[in-house]
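tl;dr need the bound structure. longer version: we got a ligand (zinc ion) that a collaborator sent over and nobodys looked at where it sits. i said id run it. heres the input, straight from their email, havent touched it
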Amino acid sequence: MEENWEKIGFKAGLECHQQLDTGKLFCRCPSVLREDKPDLIVKRKLRPVASELGEFDKAALEAFEKGQEYVYETFKDTNCEIELDDEPPQKADKDALETVLKVSIMAKANVLDQFFVMRKLVIDGSNTSGFQRTMLVSIGGELEITGKKVGILTIALEEDAARPMERTPEKVIYRLDRLGIPLIELATAPDLKTPEEVKECAAKIGELFRRTCKAKRGLGTIRQDVNISIREGARVEIKGVQDLAMIDEYARREVQRQVSLVEIRDEMKKRKIEAKDFDEAEFVELTQIFSETECKFLKGKPIFGIRLHKMQGLLGKELQPNRRFGTELAGYVKSKAGLRGILHSDELPAYGVSEREIENVKHKCNCVMNDGFAIVQGNKEKAKKAVDAIVERCKQAISGVPEETRNALEDANTEYSRPLPGAARMYPETDLTPVSLEAKELSSIGKNLPLTVKGREKLYAKNGLSGKFVDGMKLSNYACFFERLLAKGVNATTAASVLLDNLTQLRREGIANISNEMVEQALMLEKNKKISKDILLDFLKEWSKKPELEAEDILAGMSIERVDDSALRKTIIAVIEKNKDTVDSKGMHAVDALMGDAMKELKGKADGSAISKILKEEIGKRAKK
Ligand SMILES: [Zn+2]
């Protein structure tokens, strides 16, 4: 589908959330996700007070009305009373604050003099306190993508929500490990005019975050929300796009959805359908009709339905690949009534529902001419809620695209999640005083900004890194540490190979307790010729078993202290002596044969290249004799 984005009036902005690899924002717990068994489980029901709900926030009300129970899983050693909301929050994490300031300066944003912590009301249970804390840090700024500048509206620091583990209609189980992990939130102006620009801009923002060396990595650590509209459509927020490579496809499909909804609107106008036509239809019980049906999921269950005035043909209209207007209605039913979905007249007969049953439903629902109908399966109370949601959505279709928040599905389609949150959700955090920032603090941070990607490429190449290592390092979280190591004069290639290859290998073997400090000391030992680079990996492995010991103690324990040249030569001569028959018969060809023996004898005490050199010299001398 080749679109003329300008003609359609495509407009999009991004809101990116990046988890930071620092401590938690308002307590001093580590930001680690846990996959083992939780130590403590706490059950709660959130009860927001009336004054808070009096602000007409539709999104908040809808979550509250579901009346769910919330279960929280916590860990003794990585959670505290603050995540459970039993103690007031502590001051914002210094590391996280510094990172967001760096991002602000890099993006040419205007940093505020004071940061006020605000509470954003959330009552889906994902936050034990009933609100999310957020701190606006800077406003304005810009990013550059191909051929244009994209404005930045705000950059904020906020706390991540608890991690949903399981959802049932009655309860949601959350894990508190994610709650409180700092997030940078960067919102752009709606300056993006094509899906390709959306993708490029998202990548640019990701790069900006990663340059700080403090961005967490892995699926779910960066979440992009896309705000999209077309001229005849409405603003829709797609939440939680995790796969950056697909973000342009989400944008294209949202356009397709809005264009199709506009077509449905026009057709409804042509058919002279009005809101009151839907109100006139009756909610009817259809259980009897399906008592002997071949349809497995309807048979013997309570079934209800409603006539949809002149909607024949429109319910089956495709909005996104494999998603019809009927699927859209089902999304509302799922969200608002907690039922699995609906059946509608445009998709029947199917699933074992017969022509005769369809005729009976039409009759019972008073369908005439081009009327359609929808069927739901559930108890009367839920079915009524579901039918109300269907009617409400059909009425909205008369005016086109409704403003709303949609969830990103894995296949690049989206599904209704809730109304767009209103602006009236912020309250000042009374437990924390505002953070003041002095000009000199800011200017000292400004002097220590991360290098640009180009700057890194240049610096690393100058230090002799191969292209593979340059690419691996330039946006790695090790980049800043690596640059400090370079300044200390360690060998760049050795350092890169330890950080990018060896540590990964050790983590795969389950060794994850090697700190930067340990790596630095090991590399300094190599630089000062105390150990050979061939055994750096073994050395770190050994140290990881007793990280409390000093590097020298590990070195002594391994008896791998480097030998000087004369000792090296002595050992090699001894190896030659032991194999003199081979040497005498093969001459210089014995070098390869003896190399293995010599390496075994000297492992870690000398570099392979030095061993080979002396071995050649000594065999050469012997051959001349
Ligand atoms: Zn904590």
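gonna send this back to them w/ a short note. Residues 247-270 form the longest helix (24 residues).
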